[in-house]
Amino acid sequence: MSDRPQFLTVPTTSEAQSKDPANQKCGRKKTVSFSSMPSEKKISSASDCISFMQAGCELKKVRPNSRIYNRFFTLDADLQALRWEPSKKDPDKAKLDISAVKEIRLGKNTETFRNNGLADQISEDCAFSIIHGENYDSLDLVANSADVANIWVSGLRYLVSRSKQCLDLIEGNQNTPRFAWLSSVFEAADVDGNGIMLEDTAVELIKQLNLALKESKIRLKFKEIQKSKEKLTTRVTKEEFFEAYTELCTRPEVYFLLVQISKNKEYLDANDLMLFLEAEQGVAQITEEMCLDIIRRYEFSEEGQLKGFLAIDGFTRYLLSPECDIFDPAHKKVVQDMTQPLSHYYINSSHNTYLIEDQIRGPADINGYVRALKMSCRSIELDVCDGPDKEPVICNRNSMASPLSFQCVIEVINKLAFVSSEYPLILCLGNHCSIQQQKILVKQMKKTFGSKLYTEAPLPSEAYLPSPEKLKKKIILKGKKLPLGEDLLEGEVTDEDEEAEISRRLSKECLGGPKRSWLCKELSDLVSLCKSVQFTDFESAMKNQNYWEICSFSEAEASRIANECPEDFVNYNKRFLSRIYPSAMRIDSSNLNPQDFWNCGCQIVAMNYQTPGPMMDLHTGWFLQNGGCGYVLRPSVMREEVSYFSANTKGIVPGVSPQVLHVKIISGQNFPKPKGACAKGDVIDPYVCLEIHGIPADCTEQRTKTVQQNSDNPIFDESFEFEINLPELAMIRFVVLDDDYIGDEFIGQCAIPLECLQTGYRHIPLRSFVGDILEHVTLFVHIAITNRSGGGKAQKRSLTARIGMRTRDYTMLRNTSLKIIDDIFKLAVHPLREATDMRENMQNAILSVKELCGLPPITSLKQCILSLSSRLVNSDNVPSVALCMKDNFPYLEPLGTLTDVQKKVLAAYDQMIQESKFLIETADSVHHKIVQCQKAGMELHEELHNLGTREGLKGRKLSKAIESFAWNITVLKGQGDLLRNAKNDAVENMKQVHLACLSCGLSKTGTGSTDAKSKRSLEAIEEKEMGDENGRL
């Protein structure tokens, strides 16, 4: 198949009838790529949508009785009614007047869909509903693809929003802002003024307007146009230029989005853009002037820039800009607390830094250090051996070829150490030098690094390592030290742990114990905060290990400990640094999975930077956060002295609120042919794989359908949900692959920490296999994050039944078998239930309002109020309710008689305000009770062993009691934090609801001071809550 531009097209009736969405399973929908549809008419305007609807297609009609009927739907030629057949009704009754339509909903957002037994088999992206009549009845439909659903939704919304007299765009495209702009572009390039230009000129012009387009693609399009018109000349008219540009540069999914958010116009004004940024993109404190500035920067046409509107091409350019990147720009700077002990951070670390090939044959190369330091690596390795001419060298001890001068390496390190990050750099020194050359390397390091070299003796009075902030621009040497208290000029020490393991594996002579080597006092004195010691067991370490001592673990040993003692490993890593290095058996320099060890709190997980692939993608993506400084703060539950966390938890982490990540993969742009692929020519069949990495309970993988033979703009339109139990440790990796019978081939990927995701409509720049950004290659997605009660699949019971009957999860406290302790914790049981109930009740009340408005859980409250206000109007389109501030909360009062539907909506709104009000007013007292229990428990923390002895607990039973105590403290702190955050959210929600009501014109008319009074009331809420928070929270 030719590589033609991909636009939505009108399918034939036979094609429409051949797909049955009722038989399709979620996540494995049948694909209908744009390129496989007939090329009669491309969808790039409202008139195209109307033409498609008038031609008609088969849709599935969904009924509440779990039945689905095939019906052929068409739009009347006069645009006044929608009709379907076959039907048992009279033909004049098997129709729906456009004038009766209230709204159009995309997705399964009505009671009919929620209660239909086959709803789970219907794709969310193919479903839509037409709400009509005074009782807001629903006509629920399913298209054969998400593309067709988008056409009907866009076309119907356009019709509903305009009277027939205003349907100026139905006549064609030549009155649109886009055509006016392209006309001016064409005329400016038409120097002769003849209305035609050379094909070469037209091709160059389109390339200038869209840099991502290939010249061959543009020329092919002109040839198709000329062939369709049976032209012999290659000169291009204005109309042909417009047609080629429109088909090549219109992305249907962006057009549908623009029509949706512009209230069915073909451009956005400043108000449309403001609402989109606030409600959808999550941009705070947006102003009209900021929106006009965006329009001036991204709109192509001068008219649009002057009049303040953003047409389809400018909107596309804006969505592709860095402002709509998926990565939160806040995390491009250091945003985390850098004053915690060094052991509380993950540290970007390299293994065998001097290698750029595999560890057996690869020579030492200075570029290994340059690459690592430019990527903000904060722990690098130097294997130093005796060199010729009494000069120490760095080399691969498996292959002594091409050694590097130690002096040259440390000069490069000194130059680049703090270019990408100003936080401390750890040098892991593998010392294999004679005493004589050790003294030389000491002199070289002192001279080269000078005051950067940290040599201050650790203070025995301290319990933790200094912070990255305190160690800024310091170089810390990790290595062996001579025994304290012995005034030796030199002495024997055990060899490095990694070297010992390699020696054991590569030789049979391991009966004599650890290999020993000589160390001079001068080199020993340079080691301060990272003294290498051998790990024995956790009990000995917690009693005897000093905070400035660091243990190295082989991959196999660390994996065994992580599986057998995950809680002990986490507790150990709160105080001490752990270094994990890859197995010596990884002779190809492949990488371990760093997530396995991050889950246990291990800070220095050494990676083979020279080996690209999924594991290195995770590592690179993880350390993009926090300004890419090489240090990432661990979750609080893994840092606090008294807390419980196990990496192997199967469900909810105590004290952490699970979240639901909603991802819609919409489309891809400009996918390249996989490197090295040759079997299919230039054709690819892409699909997207979504991987969630984190604690084992969160790890999962899903994929989209395959889109056949489309690399330019494949449309996926598939939605996914992932429950995340520990968001702070979660990452999502998007991988694009070419579906092939022989083996799926890699196209591009992007790995991002969940904490760095921006919500809304975003483009994801993809990276190559080696990690380089692929120019113009992106994924277009929609991201939303909700709490657990606001996500999940639609249930089959009614909304009221679902909320009333759902089992509520309470985080339970554990019995410690220590009576005095358990009596304290029993006092917290009721406040904890109260806290959970208040949070869940508020969330359910908000969800109820959203569902009654036909909106999904991911919808913002501002969008919700805008939808709600459209229902609370009378027959004259005048608001039937008015904003009334009671006790500083935004209630709505009826202004007359309400319909039953309006009463139901208003009751749900009142319940949302009531639950929010109750939480705001009650949270402080409940929080105080929880905190008091936590404090009372902590006062007895130091006495746990004595209390256990009195109760006769010892050994495993005493350890279990201490573990249960830590669990309970973690629950109390976490639930207290969740309640405090819920209160802050409730205050912010009331502010958003209040402002949305004002912007919708729901304030009482005729009183000029009403808005000002309402704003003062809102300020009163904020001032009161701030005062309460300072005094109590």
From TrEMBL:
InterPro entries reported for this sequence: C2_dom, C2_domain_sf, EF-hand-dom_pair, PH-like_dom_sf, PH_domain, PI-PLC_fam, PLC-like_Pdiesterase_TIM-brl, PLC_EF-hand-like
GO biological process, one term: release of sequestered calcium ion into cytosol
Region (Disordered): 1-39, 1004-1033
Basic and acidic residues biased stretches: 1012-1033
Signal peptide: none
Enzyme Commission identifier(s): 3.1.4.11
Recorded GO CC terms: cytoplasm
SUPFAM superfamilies: C2 domain (Calcium/lipid-binding domain, CaLB), EF-hand, PH domain-like, PLC-like phosphodiesterases
Keyword set, alphabetical order: Cytoplasm, Hydrolase, Lipid degradation, Lipid metabolism, Phosphoprotein, Transducer
Domain C2: 639-768
Principal localisation: cytoplasm
One example GO MF annotation: phosphatidylinositol-4,5-bisphosphate phospholipase C activity
Domain PI-PLC Y-box: start-end pairs: 523-639
Ranges for domain PH: 51-161
Catalyzed reactions: a 1,2-diacyl-sn-glycero-3-phospho-(1D-myo-inositol-4,5-bisphosphate) + H2O = 1D-myo-inositol 1,4,5-trisphosphate + a 1,2-diacyl-sn-glycerol + H(+)
Catalytic class of the enzyme: hydrolase
Protein name: Phosphoinositide phospholipase C
Gene source species: Phrynocephalus forsythii
